[in-house]
Amino acid sequence: MNMTRKELLQTFLREKKQRVFECSADYEHKTAKKGFEQQHEEATIAVDMLEEMIAEEEAREEAKDIAG
């Protein structure tokens, strides 16, 4: 089975979301645990970037489907 670009990005996204969860002090995942501030911030930024990349990949796939 070949992994697609989108599947790979989704795998990375799951990993980074888990990291945000692990480093969070609250249920909304907005506040880092003491001592985990930098890791929380980096993971949160990565989540945002990966979500954007997945949306771009979906748009690319949709355009490809429309073009035939």
- Compute the average pLDDT: 95
The domain count comes to 1
What would you call the shape?
elongated
Radius of gyration: 15 Å
Through-space gap between termini? 24 Å
Segments where pLDDT lies below 50 for 5+ residues?
none
> How does the major sheet shape up?
none
Share in helix: over 70%
The helix/strand class is mainly alpha
Let me know the number of strands: 0
Q: Strand content of the residues, in percent?
A: under 5%
Determine the number of helices (DSSP H or I, runs of at least 4 residues). 2
- Helix and strand string, N-terminal first? HH
Structure, described:
It is a single chain. The longest helix is centred in the last third of the chain and has 31 residues, at 37-67. 74% of the residues lie in helices and 0% in strands. It is mostly helical and 68 residues long. Helix 1 runs antiparallel to helix 2 (37-67).
Question: How would you summarize the topology of this molecule?
Answer:
Layout: H1 5-23, H2 37-67
Question: What can be said about this structure in brief?
Answer:
The protein is 74% helix and 0% strand. It has 68 residues and is mainly alpha-helical.
Please describe the structure with a list of short key phrases separated by commas or semicolons.
68 residues, mainly alpha, 2 helices, elongated
